[in-house]
Design brief:
mainly alpha; Serine Threonine Protein Phosphatase 5, Tetratricopeptide repeat; 2 domains; 12 helices; about 80% helix
Amino acid sequence: MSDIRGVLVEAVRLHQMGHLQQAATLYRKVLTADPNSADALHLLGMIALQQDQAAIALELIGKAIILNNREASYHFHHALALQTLNDMQGAVTGYRRALALKPDDADVYNNMGNALAALDRPEESVAAFRRALALRPDNAVAHNNLGHVQRGLQRWEEAEASFRKAIALAPAYASAFVNLGNLYRDRDDLRSAESCYRRASRSRRAIPQPFAALV
């Protein structure tokens, strides 16, 4: 069994380095020796999620939860798979389960905010993003997501402040420039909107997009 533990450790190392296929092979090796390895099931599910195979991820991580329902990350990633599959209510339920086990996870609150926004529950969404930011004030993504919901509520000044905070934290954050441009467009300030869109275009050309999965 100690040898299998070593295989799992090596699989995690490869996974962290981005060698997904090699890591998946080792996770499967662990599961051949120990079909009840919740960690291997969960991590293999994470690879499936990274490879846009959310349904497979849901099944694998669900099996991990059956074996161990006290691990917050399992519920978080199970909820993320549900969200990817557009089951927003299921995702919110999963995120709440994760928070019951680990109440101070800013990433969970940020993702739950997006799911609540998709369910047209903007006030709850705002509260989730604010909680994420209370835990991690330098989270540019959460500021941008908060601004997106505030814009939908026509809280123009609050939304503008949120987008500008996101840009201050991540000056090449193209999505925040687009959202700020949309805000100016809503307010018929077309010159400022055009300036933001140009900044977004330059940012996209300058660097790979690091926030592609977020609002």
